[in-house]
């Protein structure tokens, strides 16, 4: 019987507000979560939670025990962190959020490489292009590709990526090559849904700032889907070099209007607080900074 596992399960259930909500963080089935909490109540001889079909709430005893468990588990995490800082070894779970395409192309093998250095760490990695709330969703670290705005979050830059207007040679041979961004309005374009300006694409060129309203034939929330459509000669895309850099180098995609540049954006490791960052997270950030110090895609 693992008392700490029962206590941690109970705390996760309360924090998530449901048994189902706790399953993801704990990597357990709902039945296992329910069993651990039930065994805990049986061992203590008290009911900790009031359960109805609509909501979950703590009893008076449950609230007292929750606060005690939270404090005790916090001390346990602090003890692990102290050992980590003394030994230089990362220990425990690191919960990470990262963008989908970047996470698959450039981070998927990073977790294994870090684990080889620090075998006592485990990862919970979520890939999503939605901007997650680190604090509310319990992430230790997020990788974000953005023009970093003022924020209460702390960031360390890993790299940067240029956003490039490009298409396949076959598409350009069929539809003609735009000579100016204004020509895009007459072309098929493949649009990325999370692009902040939506269908208005902007560029800086010899005649200053230029914007054009595009008319997408395909819209998607995934950059790899944009790339695949371009490689199948479906139209023009505006995508970062971390996705299309190899294609540009190989000639399977061609940059369009190179005198007119879109934005260059930073890639950052973002975390909640410089003061309270745990040693395991600090070690991971240092590892990522080191890993991306050498460019990993053609710019």
Written description of the protein model:
The chain is of the alpha/beta class. It has three domains: 3-86, Orthogonal Bundle (Arc Repressor Mutant, subunit A); 87-160 and 265-291, Periplasmic binding protein-like II (D-Maltodextrin-Binding Protein, domain 2); 162-263, D-Maltodextrin-Binding Protein, domain 2, CATH 3.40.190.290. The chain has ten helices and 13 strands. The protein has helices at residues 3-16, 19-26, 30-44, 60-87, 100-107, 110-117, 169-175, 223-231, 241-250, 279-291; strands spanning 49-51, 56-58, 92-98, 121-127, 141-146, 154-167, 189-192, 200-205, 208-213, 216-220, 236-240, 254-255, 264-271. Strands 3, 4, 5, 6, 7, 10, 11, 12 and 13 form a nine-stranded mixed beta sheet that branches. Strands 1-2 form a two-stranded antiparallel ribbon. A hairpin with a 4-residue loop joins strand 1 (49-51) and strand 2 (56-58). Helix 1 (3-16) crosses helix 3 (30-44). It is elongated and about 75 Å long. It starts with a helix and ends in an 8-residue tail after the last helix. The mean pLDDT is 89.
* Name of the CATH architecture of the largest domain: 3-Layer(aba) Sandwich
Q: Helix proportion of residues, in percent?
A: 40-55%
User: How many whole angstroms does the radius of gyration measure?
Assistant: 24 Å
- Secondary-structure element string: HHHEEHEHHEEEHEEEEHEHEEH
pLDDT below 50 for ≥5 consecutive residues: which ranges?
Answer: none
Give the overall form. Answer: elongated
CATH topology of the largest domain: D-Maltodextrin-Binding Protein, domain 2
């Amino acid at each position: 019987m693992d008392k700490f596992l029962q206590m941690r399960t109970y705390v996760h259930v309360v924090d998530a507000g449901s048994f189902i909500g706790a399953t993801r963080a704990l990597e357990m089935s709902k039945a296992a979560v329910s069993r651990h909490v039930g065994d805990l109540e049986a061992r203590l001889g008290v009911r900790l939670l009031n359960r109805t079909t609509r909501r979950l709430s703590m009893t008076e005893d449950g609230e007292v025990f929750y606060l005690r468990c939270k404090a005790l588990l916090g001390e346990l995490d602090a003890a692990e962190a102290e050992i980590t800082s003394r030994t230089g070894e990362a220990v425990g779970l690191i919960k990470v959020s990262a963008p989908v395409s970047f996470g698959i192309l450039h981070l998927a093998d990073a977790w294994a490489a870090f684990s080889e250095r620090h075998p006592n760490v485990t990862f919970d990695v979520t890939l999503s292009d939605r901007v997650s709330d680190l604090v509310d969703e319990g992430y230790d670290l997020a990788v974000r590709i953005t023009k970093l705005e003022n924020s209460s979050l702390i960031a360390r830059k890993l790299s940067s990526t240029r956003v490039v207007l490009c298409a396949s040679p076959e598409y350009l041979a069929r539809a003609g090559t735009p000579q100016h961004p204004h020509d895009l309005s007459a072309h098929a374009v493949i649009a990325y849904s999370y692009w902040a300006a939506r269908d208005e694409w902007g560029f800086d060129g010899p005649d200053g700032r230029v914007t054009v309203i595009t008319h997408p034939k395909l819209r998607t929330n995934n950059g790899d889907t944009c790339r695949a459509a371009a490689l199948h000669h479906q139209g023009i895309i505006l995508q970062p070099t971390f996705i299309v850099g190899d294609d540009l180098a190989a000639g399977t995609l061609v940059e369009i209007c190179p005198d007119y540049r879109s934005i260059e954006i930073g890639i950052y490791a973002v975390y909640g607080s410089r003061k309270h960052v745990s040693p395991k997270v600090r070690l991971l950030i240092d590892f990522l900074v080191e890993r991306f110090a050498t460019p990993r895609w053609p710019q």
